[in-house]
Design a protein that fits this description.
Largest sheet: 3 strands, antiparallel
Mean pLDDT: 93
Strand order of the largest sheet: 1-3-2
Number of domains: 1
Oligomer: single chain
Low-confidence stretches: none
Number of helices: 2
Distance between the termini: 18 Å
Number of strands: 3
Helix content: 25-40%
Structural class: alpha+beta
Length: about 80
C-alpha cells in the first residue's frame, strides 16, 4: 500500500470468500490501471483481524462483514472515482 499510494485513508480493506468477484464485480475495481491486492488468510478469524488492523489502527476504509460464512480472503484496493465504495 505504501508503494502504491501511501495514505491508508485512500484504501479500502475487506474480507470475503471470493476476492476476485468482490474486487472486480462488487467494487468495480479495474484489473488494469487500479491498485489492488488480495491474499488467502489462514482462517476467517485471521482475515478479520488483518482487516481490523488496517481499518482501526491505520485508518483504511472498511465495512463490517456482509454476513458471508467463513470469509478467508483479505483484499484491498486504492479507492477511485469509479470504485464502490
Amino acid at each position: 500500500m505504501k508503494k502504491r499510494g501511501g495514505d491508508y485513508g485512500r484504501w479500502f480493506v475487506g474480507v470475503c470468500k471470493d476476492a476476485r468477484q468482490r474486487l472486480f464485480d462488487s467494487h468495480g475495481v479495474h484489473k488494469k490501471g487500479d491498485c489492488w491486492i488480495y491474499a488467502h488468510a489462514e482462517s476467517c478469524s485471521v482475515a478479520t483481524r488483518v482487516r481490523s488492523y488496517f481499518v482501526r489502527k491505520l485508518g483504511a476504509t472498511g465495512l463490517k462483514d456482509g454476513g458471508e460464512v467463513g470469509p478467508d480472503f483479505v483484499y484491498a484496493y486504492r479507492k477511485a472515482a469509479h470504485t464502490r465504495p
